[in-house]
Amino acid sequence: MGKSLRWPVGTEVRHKPIAGGAMLYDASRAGNADSSWFDALWWSRRGQVRESTEGRGAALFIEADERQLVLRHYRRGGWMARLMRDRYHWSDESRTRSYLEWHLLYVLRRAGLPVPVPIAACYRRTGRYTYSADLLTEQIPAAPSLAAHLQRAPLAPSGWTAGSGR
Fold first, then answer.
1. What is the pLDDT of residues 65-87, one digit of tens each?
2. Which neighbouring-strand residues pair with 70?
3. CA end-to-end span of the chain, whole Å?
4. CA 61, 13, 47 angle in degrees (round to 5)?
5. Contacts of 127 (CB under 8 A, 6+ apart)
6. Which residues sit opposite 15 in a β-bridge?
7. What backbone torsions phi and psi does residue 25 show, to the nearest 5 degrees?
8. Are 116 and 140 in contact (CB under 8 A)?
9. All residues at 6 or more sequence positions from 89 whose CB lies less than 8 Å from its CB, including other chains
10. Which residues of 85-121 are buried (b: 16+ CB within 10 A; e: fewer)?
11. What integer is the mean pLDDT of 29-42?
């Protein structure tokens, strides 16, 4: 195993153990963050979910405290999905998919780029060598998913590099 990755973070970033793993969150945006936030059924029972079935797995679109949130459970694609639907190889907490994406969004957001606001990320160990992961972000208002955009029209090669595709 390699060294743990280190990302620059502010004093608002918190780390908290949860059953089977840990969570990372921005206390300035989610001071009362709890592991139940990564449970789709918990949100559904509260009547705060509108589900989307685009992509590899369903992303849950959540309306909570006048904010639009997106909860994504990481799922594999392709051939590996048949073997390990939502499990990934464990090497180190800092290298989990959810922590890597959360930190990347955090750094890009602080740099002023228009990316989703990272709220919280978690991982749960699912054995000695595997884990599953989730990410909670604020939804970008009126932003269509890539899948929805591609259903309307193909994305020109210049759109992949220009960022708009229009």
1. 888 999 998 887 776 666 778 88
2. 61, 137
3. 44
4. 25
5. none
6. 24
7. -155, 160
8. yes
9. 129, 130
10. ebbbebeebebbbbbbbbbebbeebeeeeeebbbbbb
11. 91
Question: SS3 of 86, please?
Answer: coil
Alpha helices in 21-131 (DSSP H): 40-45, 80-83, 97-110
Q: Report whether 105 contacts 6 (CB < 8 A).
A: no
Average pLDDT of the chain to the nearest whole number: 84
Q: Please tell me the distance from the alpha carbon of residue 111 to that of residue 152, in angstroms, as a whole number.
A: 31
Q: Which amino acid is at 91?
A: S
Q: Give the CA distances from residue 81 to residues 72, 74, 76, 86, 104, in Å, rounded to whole numbers and listed in that order.
A: 16, 11, 5, 7, 25
Contact 109, 101 (CB under 8 A): no
Question: What gap in Å lies between CA 87 and CA 96, rounded to an integer?
Answer: 11
Helices (H), ranges, 38-88: 40-45, 80-83
pTM of the model: 0.82
Q: How far apart are CA 138 and CA 62, in angstroms?
A: 9
